[in-house]
Protein 1
Amino acid sequence: MVSIEIQRNGANQIVGAHFFGHAGYDEHGYDIVCAAVSVLSATTILGLTQIAQQEGEFSNAEGRCDMVLSGTITQSSQDLLKTMLLGLEEISKQYPKFVQIHEI
């Protein structure tokens, strides 16, 4: 299962996202749920770093992805993260046994 933790600050801005694990929907290389989550997370990191110019620490590795924003939180970064979260929520609705999202 992919577990996703979303962090917000006092202004309700998304300031962190942490992804753990593998969906286990299908065998490695054929897991469409893992692929969908991976594409959303990787694309969001690219958008945060290259489009929104958001400061932070970003990593994406096998079975783990972390996005921790720092500095001034830009509106562009919030738009990207909210869009990512919408996509993840839709995947979680369609595959609830394989993707869970928690606000921490």
Note: The longest strand covers residues 2-8.
Protein 2
Amino acid sequence: MTTHGRELGGEHVQTQLRGDEGDPVPPEVDELRASFPRQSDPGFASRRSQQARSARGGLMAAGALVALVCLFVIVGRLNSGTQASVGTAMYCVSLASAGLSVELARRARTRLAMMAIILAAAGASLADAMP
């Protein structure tokens, strides 16, 4: 490995050539590479997995709560003696979306699970406006 100097904006910059590649590497890159192992945190991976586990649990609980509310409303509407309407069908769709969010969260698809919970809650809100 050879070291070459060059002028850059009035200051002298040392660069190193990598083997036969001929691409200059600034000295900051080698300093970063040398300092990277010192910065490693042994607890980082465990904290991150704990946060992911907690997020999945929270999303599963939120999806189950929305599904439970939809289920109670559906049963209440059907037991009241009125015919099933568009609002009841919308609650059924919201129930399915909330159930899907629980399964997505269980499979660690948290972004999709959050989207399914939002759609379920929005559908349940719209179902109240329908007859």
Note: Residues 44-79 form the longest helix (36 residues).
Protein 3
Amino acid sequence: MPEGRLLLLGDTRGNSADSRYRFEEAEGGTVPLSAVKGALIDEDDPLVVGLRPAVPVGGGLLFLGAVSGVVALRLRRRAVTAATPMADTVPVPGF
């Protein structure tokens, strides 16, 4: 790896145009450090620390929503089944 240059890897899609795509170009597909714009997020960053407890809460809400959906479907099926008349209570013409 040349000094002052970075090898960039994108996602796994074939069209990410990262350093693997540009490997045949000069400097082996690397880019100069000055061309990269971004910020390093430290583990003690307030945003990361603030969002850390939100992950389990979001998972719990997702689980609660799934359970509520299943319960609602079962209650609706019960209501529809109770509202339909039974076969022995329907008058049959001609008998």
Note: Residues 54-83 form the longest helix (30 residues).
Protein 4
Amino acid sequence: MFVAFAALTLAACGTPSGEMGNNVMEEVGNIVAADNTVAMLPAELTTTAGNRMPQPFVGRWGLTSEDCTGTAGNNKGLMVIAPDLISFYEARAAVRDLQVISPTEVRVTLALTREGQDWTQETPLKFEEGGTKLSRLVDGRKLQYGRCGA
């Protein structure tokens, strides 16, 4: 929490408050420590966020370490989160709505497309194990991802 506050404070240095913008999540930046843990979201971000993923969630996530290092075809558990799009092995999902539940959890509504099929899915994304894992609940099944290295 201190890291996120420090990042916000530094971002404000030298910038008049009128020029900061209204989206605090964009000001926080991607806060990932050297040990690959994720700084928790500041408590003030626990409101509806629209359709932009908070930066700590953005990145490459794998169900296994091979998903992070594998080549196309053998990385079926790779999930790539961008601010407004989540990519899976054979599907793309536009972020249609996002609600910040807590400093460590968001609930996202996805508009998925795969091989000509379109559907909507609501899923929570939650940091676990001190921010080293990201869980996703799909059809009653919990999937747990680890952040891929740079």
Note: Confidence is low (pLDDT under 50) at residues 1-48.
